[in-house]
Amino acid sequence: MNIYLDYQSSKPVDPRVVEAMLPYFHDKFGNPSSLHAVGDVATKTLEESRAAIAGFINADQEEILFTSGATESSNLGLIGYAFRNKNKGNRIVISETEHISIHNIAKYLEKNGFSVSKIPVDQYGRVAIQRIADRVNDKTILVSVGYANNEIGTTQSISEIGKFCRDKGIVFHSDAVAAEGLIPIDVQRDNIDLLTISSNDIYGPKGAGVLYVKEGIRINPLVIGGGQERGLRSGTENVPSIVGMKRAVEIMQEEMPGETKRFQKYRDKLIENVLKTIPRCYLNGHPTERLPSNAHFRFDGIEGESLLLSFKDKGISVSTGSACSSKTLEPSHTLIALGLLHEEAHGSLEITFGRYNKEKDVDGVMEVLPGIVERLRKLSPLYKEEA
Amino acid sequence: MKSTQYSDKVLDHFKNPRNVGTLEGDDVAVGRVGNPVCGDLMEFYVKIKDGKIEDIKFKTFGCGSAIATASMITELAKGKTVDEALRITRKDVADELDGLPPIKMHCSNLAADALKNAIEHYRTKQKPEPKKGRDVAEKKGIAGIHEFMDQGVYTEVTDFSVFKDKRTMVIDRGDRSMEVALELTKQTPRVVFVTQEKKMAAGELSERLSASNVKILYESELLEIRGLKTVEKVLIHDLNEDEEYELFIDNIVILKD
User: Fold this and answer.
1) pTM summary value
2) Which pLDDT does position A366 carry in this prediction?
3) A309 closest CB neighbour out of B4, B39, B210
4) Worst-scoring range by mean pLDDT, A73-82, A120-129, A317-326, B209-218?
5) How far apart are CA B251 and CA B57, in angstroms?
6) End residue of a domain, out of A251, A275, A300
7) pLDDT tens-digit map of A267-293
8) Given phi > 0 = left and psi -120 to 50 = alpha, else beta, which region is B244?
9) NIF system FeS cluster assembly NifU N-terminal domain: which residues (chain B) (predicted)?
10) What is the CA radius of gyration of chain A?
């Protein structure tokens, strides 16, 4: 068996994307800043890509900045905005379940004179407007809430959060990396001022990302150099990867409706079977307001890294929020924010579907999961058979 | 090196752990060591006869290397004299397994400590008892209780529907509080029951509570309620480990005595 069920961590590049990229390594190698014909080809490609990606999120071409990926986009959006607008205020609000990169950017801003307040989420990982309202005042310049959570898959009412911020005159950033390609994103409808997306999360190459900056919003650059991207992100544009991202967007626009329906079928089948088959097992995240591709469980009495290793042995790639599998040996901050205890966060299993999964992959999981759970529970001093 | 990059020997002991289980009898001593940071827990059962470890079994809640180190030390200790067994170090265990990822050397390599703990218990002819008991938990006030009254703190429950889908904590105040916790499970999947007891007293109510979806925190007390305007988090004191930790919660029911 060889089943990949960790699409949230990394996605293969679609072969159609690879094909679109190939000419840009050798034949069309120009630098968009050059004024000759070879450079003109690159300029044209760059601007066509910008337009295509703008269309994907209902933005204007001028509102799209190319970066090296999602992490850089969030850095540029949050740090760039905060530094440029510190005369307006020094308070920043983020949700407890933001991606770790946003938490660490917030920490950096704290070290640089900003004050950061974190919005607690409910037991399903949802952010309530009231909790944001409790935290903002006239010194608040920026709110960041992710479109969907990368671990538990819970989605947010982004357009309502965006509207709340807009009414208050606060700039709203959303990290849409987990959601892109799975939920239609519309920066107009969603009242978003700054948006982070990446190329790899829609089956494009790694090394390209976009920061959407709404017209009229001013940010400082973080990378200084030759003045590319309107001076906001210097450095020769990564044209092959940008072309790849454009192609990925085109494919996504065509295939997303059918694809998400397919994932949802797999997800629902898996969730139903797991909860039915395994005793003392729970779904993490929201039962319905969740990404169509995401199933996230926890099992009483067992630990996630052991689960992961057992799956690995059977040829199945999955993920876990367990402390034992993380670099810092800390349990997932998202699971803790749901109100789970450390040992509960420990026993988590994350399964995310993607473009190359088939329905039989769900059957593959169900074939081995009951045996794995039973074996690990027999080893565990925390699991007693009483319930 | 990734934290899960294990040697073949570690993987072998993870997949086929030796000497899993428990032992019973007067000549059996139990050792228990936990890592409070990550929640790993190891239990060892040793049967000692004529100064030698005649039999040894273990149970482990933890990652791959936690399971493998426990399994390995049972092989190393079996048949050895007690003194020899006491000399087995964490490093010996790791070496026998052809090494562990550096980050795992301390956190999950608890087997030598757990074995030592079991032998010590044999020597003092005692089963493990929590070091700190309920005597620590004097009746002191809960910080924030007045501030959050009606902002998430309830001293009585008349309308259960206000708890719909809320993470709710119920503080042990006897039978009535157990009834409330059970009733709340109809409204929300997350009910946490906090008691200073080590286990529930026998009785129909407590049996129903143990069998329900209510998460019971034994040997624990509520120290402080935190939040901006409404209850958002609580600080819990684990009396057994003498540790404090935060827990996200929406509502707290503290019935009047």
Assistant:
1) 0.91
2) 98
3) B4
4) A317-326
5) 43
6) A251
7) 999 999 999 999 999 999 999 999 999
8) beta
9) 5-127
10) 22
Residues B104 and B144 in one domain: no
Under 8 Å between Cβ of A185 and A176: yes
CB contact under 8 A, B64 and A120: no
Same domain? B85 vs B111: yes
- Answer yes or no: do B49 and B92 share one domain: yes
Which one of A18, A217, A324, A368 is the catalytic residue? A324
Q: Residue B16 carries which side chain, given as an amino acid letter?
A: N
Both B47 and B91 in one domain: the answer is: yes
- Burial degree of A380 (CB within 10 A; 0-12, 13-18, 19+): buried
What ipTM was reported for this prediction? 0.89
Q: Is residue A141 part of a domain?
A: yes
Instruction: Give pLDDT tens digits for B139-195.
Output: 568 999 999 999 999 999 999 999 999 999 999 999 999 999 999 999 999 999 999
Provide, for chain B, the percentages of residues in helix, strand and coil under a 3-state DSSP scheme, each rounded to the nearest 5.
Answer: 30, 25, 45
Q: Is residue A112 part of a domain?
A: yes
In this complex, which of B43, B210, B249 lies closest to A381 when CB atoms are compared?
B43
pLDDT at B26: 83
Distances (CA, A) of A70 to A280, B107, B149, B215: 37, 32, 43, 38
- Nearest Cα residue in chain B from A324: B63
Q: Which residues of B are catalytic?
A: 38, 107
User: How open is the CA angle A154-A155-A156, to the nearest 5 degrees?
Assistant: 125
Are the Cβ atoms of A341 and B228 closer than 8 angstroms? Answer: no
Name which of A120, A122, A324 is nearest B62 (Cβ-Cβ). A324
Strands B251-253 and B153-154, by their bridges, are parallel
Cross-chain Cβ contact A339/B42 below 8 Å: no
pLDDT in tens, B42-92: 999 999 988 899 999 999 998 898 999 999 999 999 999 999 999 999 899
First to last CA, chain B: 55
Length of chain A: 387
Whether residues B147 and B41 share a domain: the answer is: no
- B41 vs A313: CB contact, 8 Å cut-off? no
**CA-based nearest distance A342→chain B, Å:** 6
Contacts of residue B217 in chain A, CB cutoff 8 Å? 341
Q: Which of B1, B16, B38, B104 to mutate to test the interface with A (most CBs of A within 10 A)?
A: B38
Residue B182 lies in a domain: yes
